[in-house]
Every structure is written in structure tokens, then in C-alpha cells.
Amino acid sequence: MNSSNKLNVLLLGLASLLTDLSSEIIYPILPFFIASLGGAGIAIGLIGGLSDAVASLLKVFSGYFSDRLGRRKALIFSGYGASAVAKLLLPLSTVWEHVLVLRPLERVGKGIRDAPRDALISESVEKKKRGYWFGVHRAMDSTGAVLGSILALVFFWFLGFDFRTIFLIAAVFAFIALAPLLFVKDVKKKPLKAKLSISLTKLPPRLKYFLMVAFVFALADFSYMFYILKAQLAFPKESMIVLPLLLYVFYNVIYSVFSIPSGALADKIGKKKIIFTGYLLFALSAFGFIYATSFFMLVILFALYGLSNAFAVGTQRAFVSDLSPSRIRGTALGTYHTITGLAALPASLIAGFLFEFFTPESAFVYALLMSVTALILLSFQKTTEKDSSWFKS
Questions:
Q1: I need a labelling partner for 117 at 20 to 30 A (CA). Which of 59, 134, 217, 324 fits?
Q2: What is the DSSP string of 2-17?
């Protein structure tokens, strides 16, 4: 990998770091803001799920158009820019239904940028190092999450800023994130002449199977807001905000620290094994959240939750890149993002329904069942044409 391509990954990582810093200033306090506007479990599930679903609908199209243009940068920049503009509108919300509209609008930018960005990362590095460099990108992204969630805690708890002031500060960081993108260079690629096909029939069989596995796992992976709300129930009234926010910061620290090592390990021992480990850790965390009643238990469980993301998120993208032909890599990554993102809506709606009308624990029972199903399906994933055994990579 030449130095300019290496710089591409670092610049994209810096843009993600600043954007995630901006987003994570908002996200930890968003469930409290929604609650202050009269929203309950269903409202939170609807906002969380619809936001990801709307963004995901765009990802296959943005991935395809980046293949069609033979260029990624313009779509990446416009996606980050759209998110920054949308964040400026969030402070205007006066009822939770406003957030229901504005939060998906903010995620439209993510829908535009993710697939072209991931395709550009994969084209900027050697195949045998993809796990490592996707891990670098996820580590930078999650470092922004750590810094953002710390700032959210400082602004909200220690400085006493109101929700709207905090959201405006977050928007400023989102615009700063556009600067590194000006120096990103497109990797030369022959434009794709084929027409867009949403059908999965033209994708390689191994990739189609993994997309099904990832979809099932995504059904388990409902909005992070329910983890914060569940943690909130374990603490006395005076600590119901600050301690869940501290746990969320801890989750992001774990996610950030272990993203690069897990990516590098995936390159050495196989991406399927690392994804399997991520799914397993997620299932263990879901099981634990069913019974979590103490701060010590929650520390362990938020660590498992962070580890599961560190192992699974970046590695899944690298695995999809490996399984897809280079000429349609953007389309394949867009399809992956769309399929997994569309699962976010039913996942969060189901969690919200269970959380509000049954018990908070029942939402995590659901997550456990779906993640175990994904584990079973993943055990039959082929990584080569001749691979038919349980754990070959």
C-alpha cells in the first residue's frame, strides 16, 4: 500500500472520528431528551429503528452509484455534509415527533456516505491487510465516540448545559469533520456500466449466505438507547443519568481499544472466526443484561457489549469486501449496509414494545434468542468454494 492510500484511510478515519464525536455528544442524552418531550419505549424504538432503516435504504444506491461513477469521494463528502446540516435542526424540536422526523434526516447522510467510504477503504489497502485497516478506521471512529460521550457527560452533568445548547455544539464538530475529506484522493477505478439490480441473485453464493446471517444478527442488535435505559433502572434517582453515561463512555473505550487488534487477528486466523466471537460476546452480554442489577455487573456487560462490536462491526465489512467481486464492491457493501440497517427498524420496535408493555428484561431475552440463531447460521458459512466444514476460514 503506497503512502497516499494509507493517508486516505487515516483521513477518512479522522472525518469519522470528528463526526462520531459530534454524534456521540447527542446520542447518550437523546433518550432523556425524547423522554422530556413525552416519548416512551415505543417512541424511542421507533426513532432508533426508523433512523437506521431510512439511512440503510440509501446505502445500496450510494454504493452502486459510486461503482457507476468510478469515484467515491463526492458521495462521501455529500453524506458527511448532509448529516452536519441535519444536526443544526435538532435543537428546534419541541415534541418527540419532531425528533422522529429529524433523526432519520440526519441519518440520510450516513446512508449516502457509508458504502462508498468502505469501498474506498478496501481499495486503498491490500486484501491481506483489510481486517487491520478496517479495524483502524473503526478504532478512530469509536475514539470519536469516546470523546463525544465524555463531552456529553461534561456538558450535561458538570456544566449544566441544556439539550439544545449541547446539540448546537455537536453540529459545529460535524462541520469541522468535513475538512479532512478535502484531502482524500479517489482510487482510480473503471466505471461500472451495468444497471442497478436490487436482486441478490447476481451476488456470489457465499456472500448471499453471509448477508442472511448478518441480517439475522442485526435483528438482535437493537438501539443502544435501550442499554442506557436498562442501566438507568439499576441506580438511585440521583445517579440515574450520570452513571449510565459513564458506562456508555466505558463501552466506547472498549470498542475503540480492541477494534485494531481484532481486525489484525481476523487477517491472521480468519474473519469468520472473529465475527463468530463477536456474535458470541453479544449473546453473552444480552444474557447478562437480563439479570443485571448492580454497577459491577453492568461494567462487565458494557465491556462485553463493546468487545462484541469491536470484533464484529469492522470485520463484517472486511468479510463482505473479501466475498465480493471488485467491480461491484461498492454495490455489495451498500447491499450489506441496507440489509442490516433495515433490520434495525423491526429490532428496535420489538425491543421498544417489549420494554414498554412487558419488562425491560424481555427485550434482552429477544436479543439473546436472535443472536444465538445468528451464531448457528454463521457456523455453516462457507469461506471458500470447497469449504463445507464448521469452522474453516
A1: 217
A2: -HHHHHHHHHHHHHHH
**CA-CA-CA-CA dihedral for 29, 33, 38, 43, to nearest 10:** -50
Distance CA 70, CA 81 (A): 21
What is the 8-class DSSP label of residue 70? T
Report d(CA 45, CA 350) in Å as an integer: 8
CA distances from 234 to 31, 50, 142 (A): 16, 28, 26
Sketch the domain layout of the chain as residue ranges: 3-378
Residues 311 and 246: their CA atoms lie apart, in Å, by 22
Q: Judge whether residue 271 has pLDDT over 50.
A: yes
CB 95 within 8 A of CB 37: yes
How far apart, in Å, are the Cα atoms of 147 and each of 22, 179, 327, 374?
9, 19, 37, 32
Tracing cell 461513477 back to the chain, one arrives at: 69
Categorize the per-residue pLDDT at 390 as very low, low, confident or very high, splitting at 50, 70 and 90. very low
What is the rounded distance in angstroms from the CA atom of residue 225 to the CA atom of residue 231? Answer: 10
- CA–CA separation, 95 vs 101, rounded Å? 11
Q: Is the separation of the CB atoms in 91 and 164 below 8 Å?
A: yes
Q: Specify the residue for cell string 455453516.
A: 380
- Grid cell for residue 256: 475503540
Reference 20, options 382, 313, 325, 334; nearest CA is 313
Asked if 96 and 38 touch (Cβ cutoff 8 Å), the reply is yes
pLDDT at residue 215, as a whole number: 94
pLDDT at 388 over 50: no
| Eight-state DSSP code of residue 158 | I
pTM (2 d.p.):
0.73
C-alpha distance across the termini of the chain, in Å: 24
As a whole number of angstroms, the distance between CA 231 and CA 137 comes to 29
What's phi and psi for 293, nearest 5 deg? -135, -5
pLDDT tens digits for range 76-104: 999 999 899 889 888 888 888 888 888 88
Topology of the domain covering 3-378:
Growth Hormone; Chain: A; (1.20.1250)
DSSP structural state of residue 358: S
Count of beta carbons in the 10 Å neighbourhood of residue 129? 16
CA 374 to chain centre: 18
Which residue in 221, 180, 178, 176 sits closest to 56, CA to CA? 221
Q: Given the C-alpha cell 448492580, which residue does it identify?
A: 294
